[in-house]
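2.7 Reproducibility. Because tokenized structures are sensitive to small changes in the input, we list the exact sequence used for TPR domain-containing protein, including any N-terminal residues retained from the expression construct. No trimming or masking was applied before prediction.
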Amino acid sequence: MGNLALTYSHQGLWKEAEKLEVQVLEIRKRVLGAEHPDTLTSMSNLALTYSDQGLWKEAEKLEVQVLEIRKSVLGAEHPDTLTSMSNLALTYSDQGLWKEAEKLGVQVLEIGKSVLGAEHPDTLTIMSNLALTYSDQGLWKEAEKLEVQVLELRKRVLRVEHPDTLISMSNLASICSYQGLWKEAEKLGVQILETRKRVLGAEHPVTLMSMDILAVTYHDLSRRDEAIEMMKNVVNLRMKVIGADHPHTLASVKCLNHWTRTAAASPDHRPATETDEASSAETKGLERQMEGLMTSQREPKKAMKNRGWIRRLKRILVP
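Resulting structure tokens (single pass, no recycling of outputs):
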């Protein structure tokens, strides 16, 4: 049952995954007890599924419980405890609690380097998460410095098309875009989208996220017809795949409506104004939150293995 939930999550079927994970958690609490490692695994996975759906308060509540128990039972430096710390930091960031996210992110990175090593895949994920927390606060240079390090190491340690390497490329593309380096952002964005279409499929939620971000980059480059057409495609596919009420869909609809109104009022496609830039920044802010939604990685119970969606350190494959 737990592994079927994992399969649903891989496919972006979060409601189906949630339903199964709730059942697994209830059974494990009753049979194994609230502090059993397998129960904590189920609780952590359910928290990530809540986060996938933008239910951050529900995710935070579970993640805090898991972290407190793991610290008590396993110790502050156990890899599973680091997982909980990293995921909780991201949930803070998703809610705009960036100082709390940064404090926890710095702490878990220091421990990860000491315990796992600077080039361990999980340490690199933690470092990437901290870079995005800096990005959330507008600390672009700090974010860029960390993300470039992560990307170079992932290219060397993993491979160019590894999911985690694509994560770093996507994050770096966003950071470039926020700094006005749109050509660099476009180059990375096109490469990421083509790879994810091939590997995940054209309608996978992560592929749609990449398409959304590339559309924003096109708009930044004043290629507005292309941007609007791509965003229309994103909206239609998101309504079909994840539903009209999902935060990702709502963000895309809001962006598309603004672009359409702007284009109608300015048929000559005038240069971007401060109003356009503000809207783009708002859209990117929503996209940063969206990056945090589809970010889970799972690993087999006794062997670290990154699942590699976007940002979150990992989930655990249940037995």
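Strands lie at 298-299, 315-316.
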